[in-house]
Structures are given as structure tokens and as C-alpha cells.
Design goal:
Layout (H helix, E strand, L loop, with lengths): L1 E12 L9 E10 L2 E10 L7 H27 L4 H25 L8 E7 L2 E7 L3 E5 L3 E3 L6 H7 L5 H5 L20 E6 L5 E5 L1 H4 L4 H11 L4 H14 L6 E12 L4 H9 L1
Antiparallel strand pairs: 1-10, 2-3, 3-4, 4-5, 5-8, 6-7, 6-9, 9-10
Helix pairs in contact: 1-2, 6-7
Length: 274
């Protein structure tokens, strides 16, 4: 029987300018009868605000708690994950996280914020929840961005006021219109889709993607492919650091493949009953 398995590469680097790394990442892998499923999160604490590292840390802790306490229970009780149902739960979780960060900000008499880009892969489906300017890409023959930047310059591009080239070098390119922890109202971006053969997912903070071009990422993937995702991210992070790395940079690279594995008699019986 073929079972789904992940090949993963990940790195988070402080860079050469910032005094602290305010990026946080989370990778959680579960197992069910068809193989592995996974939760992947990148949170980039806002350096212009107070205690950005604490904001991103709260995001990661809450998602970890949700995975350990809630998602494992869903899989155990229902033997599967319904992404439509989980989507609503994720929204509630993000609203809860937002409230926690706002309360934390009040406790230290400051404004605290973070981005969030989250990907849940289950069997051949994925769901994304996103706020801010971290990004998630799906890469196969091409590299497609699955999130949208909640930044001032991205809004100018969408309105046709500014082109992409000007936006990339604009002094306001780091100004966010939406993030977690500033306002009680949240507009959570969602994207859902299918995972096809040879798809690779890339989650990253702006400190990573701002110093790379698409062709460099595609070349690195072509060189290492699924055999070594870690070598791929190490090569790409090396390029980022060679260009000065003025910001924290974080990346998660995920490849899901199907491998033929032996299945025992008990699993065969369970599979027949599903």
C-alpha cells in the first residue's frame, strides 16, 4: 500500500542586522492509515512594534496546543479530518490568538503584532490561513503564490497605482495593513486546494523572499528535489545571507510523496471498513 510521507527542510536565521530573531516556525506531523499529515506555520513578529518575538511565540504555542489537544482528538474520534470543519476551528483559534496578543500588549503598555501563514496538508488536500506579508507558495512546473500580501505596497499594486518593480524598492514596503494583535476585527485570508504529484510547498517570512528571485528557488529545487529538502533551504539561505540578510529570515520547504509500504492484517481490515 502506498503511504504519504513528507520530506521537509527548514531554517530560521537572525540575519546580520537585527538583534533578536522575531520569526517563529512550527512543524507538526501526524500519522493516519494513509500516511502522514502535517501542520506548518510561519509567524513573523513585527520588529517596529514592542515584543514582536513574544507575539510570534504566542502564535506558535497556541497552534501547538491546538494540534496536541484538539486535532489529535478529531483524528482519533473520526478517523479523518474534514477541512471545511477544520477551517472554522482554525478561524476561532486565530481569533483567540489575536485576543491573547492584544491582551499581552496591554499588559506591557505597548502595541504587539505578528504575521501568520499557516498550511495544513491532509491526504491530497490543503488549507491555508493567512494574515500579513509572510508567504506560502506552491511549486511544480511553476511557482505560484497561494497567499496575498497585506502590505501597503501590495495594495497599491492591486489598485494599479504602483508596479511590482517600484513596490519592491519602496520605503514603505514593510508597512502592513493587517496583522495579528493590533485590532479585534480580523480579515483572515483562506485558500484551499488539492495536492498533486510533485507539488512542493514553500512557507517563508519576508526576510527570506525579499532577497531571492523565482528562478533561484526553482534552480535549487531542481538540483536537490525531494532527495534533500534541507540542502535546498541551506543553499537558498546561503544566498540570502550573501546579500546582507538585513532581516530575520525563515523558511519551511515541504514535499509530499507516496511510498509503497507493507501493511499488516489489522490495517487491511480497518481499511476495508472505511
Amino acid at each position: 500500500m502506498k503511504k504519504r510521507r513528507f520530506s521537509i527542510g527548514t531554517l530560521s536565521d537572525i540575519g546580520y542586522v537585527k538583534k533578536t530573531n522575531q520569526d517563529r516556525i512550527l512543524i507538526k506531523i501526524g500519522e493516519e492509515y494513509l500516511g502522514e499529515f502535517g501542520l506548518f506555520v510561519v509567524a513573523d513578529g513585527m520588529g517596529g512594534l514592542k515584543a514582536g518575538d513574544m507575539a510570534s511565540e504566542i502564535v506558535i504555542k497556541e497552534f501547538k496546543y491546538w494540534w496536541d489537544s484538539r486535532l489529535s482528538l478529531v483524528v482519533k474520534e473520526m478517523n479523518k479530518i474534514n477541512l471545511n470543519t477544520i477551517g472554522g476551528e482554525l478561524d476561532n483559534l486565530i481569533f483567540h490568538i489575536n485576543k491573547r496578543i492584544i491582551e499581552f500588549g496591554k499588559s506591557i503598555n505597548g502595541r504587539v503584532g505578528t504575521t501568520l501563514s499557516m498550511l495544513l496538508i491532509y491526504r491530497d488536500q490543503y488549507i491555508i490561513k493567512h494574515i500579513g506579508d509572510s508567504r506560502i507558495y506552491k511549486i511544480n512546473d511553476d511557482m505560484i503564490m497561494l497567499t496575498k500580501d497585506d502590505s501597503w505596497v501590495a495594495e497599491q499594486v492591486r489598485l494599479g497605482i504602483m508596479n511590482i518593480e517600484k513596490a519592491a524598492n519602496h520605503p514603505k514596503k514593510h508597512v502592513l495593513l493587517k496583522c495579528i494583535g493590533i485590532k479585534e476585527e480580523l480579515d483572515i485570508f483562506e485558500n484551499k486546494g488539492e495536492v498533486f504529484k510533485e507539488d512542493i510547498f514553500l512557507l517563508c517570512s519576508d526576510g527570506f523572499y525579499n532577497l531571492l528571485i523565482k528562478d533561484e528557488i526553482l534552480r535549487a529545487l531542481k538540483e536537490f528535489k525531494e532527495n534533500d529538502m534541507q540542502k535546498t533551504v541551506e543553499k537558498l539561505m546561503g544566498i540570502v545571507k550573501s546579500r546582507g540578510a538585513p532581516d530575520n529570515a525563515s523558511v519551511i520547504l515541504i514535499y509530499q510523496n507516496c511510498r509503497k509500504e507493507k501493511i499488516n492484517l489489522y490495517e487491511k481490515i480497518v481499511n476495508m471498513l472505511r
